[in-house]
Design goal:
Elements lengths: L2 E5 L4 H13 L4 E6 L17 E4 L5 H10 L4 E4 L6 H6 L2 H22 L8 E7 L24 H20 L3 E6 L1 E3 L8 H11 L3 E4 L5 E6 H14 L4 E5 L4 E3 H18 L2 H5 L15 E4 L14 H7 L7 H14 L1 H4 L3 H4 L4
Parallel strand pairs: 1-2, 1-4, 2-3, 4-5, 5-6, 6-10, 7-9, 8-12
Antiparallel strand pairs: 9-11
Helix pairs in contact: 1-7, 2-4, 4-5, 6-8, 8-11
Bound molecules: nicotinamide-adenine-dinucleotide.
The site of nicotinamide-adenine-dinucleotide has 30 residues, from helix 1, strand 2, helix 4, strand 5 and strand 7.
Length: about 350
């Protein structure tokens, strides 16, 4: 049995992790620490009556210390971050504050509680991104855990800074840490500013699908539940001080992803005539292809061309393997979005799409 703080547990991946962990380890005590920024949503935790949500800032070291003491916390799983690259280009300050200073605040509180004094068994798991490794050419080998850091956006630079702090707290003070660097996630509860929920909802609502540049930027797509299994494997089997890359094994250009979204939406309307009544503005409601909504827009500044994950280490040391390919994972995701209009409808205005 463990007592966990899950930071950012009301966000996309954090909430999925809390649902997952509550299923696989129902005896755990889980405290979610989340500031409920535009990306946080307490409804992501609906149905989890035993989970305590503390609305607060990871930068508040005293608050973190008091949660650790009050709930005898032995594990921190750290998701809280500013996470959207486009927002980091227009407003980088929040990224440095939350991702760098916020992570350091957690590390300070964890060190004080777990190392200063008698010392207690503990684990600090830090969730990071493959974007810290920079951009790959078409035939470069995939990112491994020893690939040199070369972050290109304010987002990835701030995540890189947080990774280095976690490493330093392990190396200098002996804090028991693991870090996972994962690829692009998709699935339930993803805020509709990111590619997959944005394009899915735009296809349903008959809005343009704004494709950056030539649409040939490549990402490795990871279903969020596969990611949660990878994090769980890090917590159970990961060695302290180690880093694990977690991918979905689905390296795809954006255009292929978008075509799959359009195909799946068209098929869903063909199979279920009631969707045309619910989403009358969708081209698919009139029997036309969703692909007619594709619109090429000016590329993102500094847009990394390709990310790819070599997950050999996670496979061999943790027994991790993704369970879904992209068509299967997206079919599940589309079914979720079609069944949870109550969840996404109120978020559309908040998404303030930047494209
Ligand atoms: N989404 C992806 O594809 C992806 C890929 C690689 C890595 N990651 C990493 O995974 C983690 C989770 O990403 P996500 O997509 O779920 O993000 P998200 O933006 O959906 O959620 C972030 C959560 O953190 C909370 N938060 C923000 N600032 C906070 C603060 N100062 N104190 C407390 N809570 C705060 C927000 O309210 C929100 O609930 C992040 O660290 C991100 O860098 C995400």
């Amino acid at each position: 049995m463990a007592n966990l703080i899950v930071t950012g547990g009301a966000g996309f991946i954090g909430a999925n992790f809390v649902h997952y962990r509550s299923k696989v380890a129902p005896e755990d005590k889980i405290i979610v620490l989340d500031l409920l920024t535009y990306a946080g949503n307490k409804h992501n935790l609906d149905g989890l009556d035993d989970v305590l949500l503390v609305e607060g800032d990871i930068c508040d070291t005293d608050l973190v210390s008091s949660i650790i003491a009050d709930h005898e916390i032995d594990t921190i799983v750290h998701f809280a971050a500013e996470s959207h690259v486009d927002r980091s280009i227009t407003g980088p300050d929040a990224f440095v504050t939350t991702n760098v200073i916020g992570t350091h605040s957690l590390l300070k509180a964890a060190k004080k509680a777990w190392l200063d004094g008698d010392g207690k068994p503990h684990r600090f798991h830090h969730v990071s991104t493959d974007e810290v490794y920079g951009s790959l050419g078409p035939s470069d080998p995939a990112f491994s855990e020893t690939t040199a850091y070369a972050p290109n956006s304010p987002y990835s630079a701030s995540k890189a800074g947080s990774d280095h702090l976690v490493r330093a707290y392990h190396h200098t003070y002996g804090l028991e840490t693991t870090t996972s660097n994962c690829s692009n996630n998709y699935g339930p509860f993803q805020f509709p500013e990111k590619l997959i929920p944005l394009f899915t909802l735009n296809a349903l609502n008959g809005k343009a699908l704004p494709i950056y540049g030539d649409g040939m930027n490549v990402r490795d797509w990871l279903h969020v539940e596969d990611h949660c299994r990878g994090i769980e494997a890090c917590l159970r089997k990961g060695k302290s001080g180690e880093v694990y890359n977690i991918g979905g094994g689905q390296e795809l250009p954006n255009l292929t992803v978008i075509e799959e979204i359009c195909r799946a939406v068209d098929n869903a309307f063909a199979a279920d005539p009631s969707l045309a009544k619910r989403f009358p503005n969708a081209p698919a409601a009139q029997g036309r292809p969703s692909a007619e909504l594709k619109t090429f827009v000016t590329d993102r500044m500094g847009h990394d061309r390709r990310y790819a994950i070599d997950e050999t280490k996670a496979r061999s040391e943790l027994g991790y393997a993704p369970a879904r390919d992209f068509p299967q994972g997206f079919a599940e995701t589309l079914a979720w979005f079609l069944s949870r209009e109550d969840w996404w409808m109120p978020l559309l205005e908040r998404a303030a799409i930047t494209r």
